[in-house]
Amino acid sequence: MPTLSSLNSIILVLALVSGSAFAQSAAGDSAGVPRPGAPARGIAVSGAPSLKGVQSRIYPLVNVDLTDKRGVTTKLVSFHRVSGENRFVGFLGAAEIEVPYEKIREANIATSDEPGGRMRAHFRLKSGKLVNATFDEREGEQLFAGYAEFGRVTIYWRDIRRLTITARTKTTDLPKFGPATSGVDVLLTDRGGIETELIAFHRATGDNFISGLLGAARVEVPLRIMSKVTFERPDDSPLLRCVIELRGRKPIKLRLKSYEEEKLYRGRAEFGDLRIRLSHVKELTVHRSTPKLRDLDPVAAAEGREIEIDKKKPRR
Length: 316
Fold this sequence. Notes:
Blueprint: H1 4-30, E1 62-68, E2 73-81, E3 87-92, E4 95-100, E5 104-110, E6 119-125, E7 130-135, H2 137-140, E8 143-148, E9 151-156, E10 160-168, E11 184-190, E12 195-203, E13 209-214, E14 217-222, E15 226-232, E16 240-246, E17 252-256, H3 258-261, E18 264-269, E19 272-277, E20 281-289, H4 293-296, H5 298-303
Antiparallel strand pairs: 1-2, 1-10, 2-8, 3-4, 5-6, 5-10, 6-7, 8-9, 9-14, 11-12, 11-20, 12-18, 13-14, 15-16, 15-20, 16-17, 18-19
């Protein structure tokens, strides 16, 4: 029969073994090793397949004819909600609804009769059925984007008045702008009439485009598809205006907000670097996209020497 002393020893040993096992379990958790029977961290247990590539939306992207609140109509491909899935979220009476855009033939957006009230959205489905829905400020603040022949377009849902869905977006529908980071060779004329030839003219930060307002939408036009840009400030408007002539496309007119006209652009002249804000530019004549430095002079680029500027042909 075990004595009291031996029972105390057995209890002590069991306590030590149990404590050691608990410590190992905790150490395994902190090291990222799951306990037996627990779901592995970072692994979906639902069995859903992983989505590859940039196209990870449940609902397909669509091509549209969009008319904004200023009456400007623009054809867009790859029209999509910037955050979240590609569908309308609103209300049908007291019920909340979600309508994929691919099911819609046409949508008309109407403002609210009361300040701060819900806006109305009238959908004509492809089946012919009419759905009269409403949406609140949260949905109105959703940002949408698409691509026109002249660049990327973004607009808030509240600023859309008419939307006609024309087709699902195919890869071949996307316009080919080339690399957005490519600089351009230009003849720059400033407000004082001084002309300067520049290579690698580009936006000092971010991708290489000019951004402004077309109707109620914001557009980003890549410099490399432009042929000429003229800037002016009408006496009756605080916003700088620009007329952009495009290669093989119709010209467009943009309004630039104050923060956009103060964006800094840079280029390289024969005498060195040049920096200028758009508000000080009168005209840009775009010659071509700037070849990479190694294409202008492979030997000088490899040796780290200064590369001479030649607008007509690469320096040999």
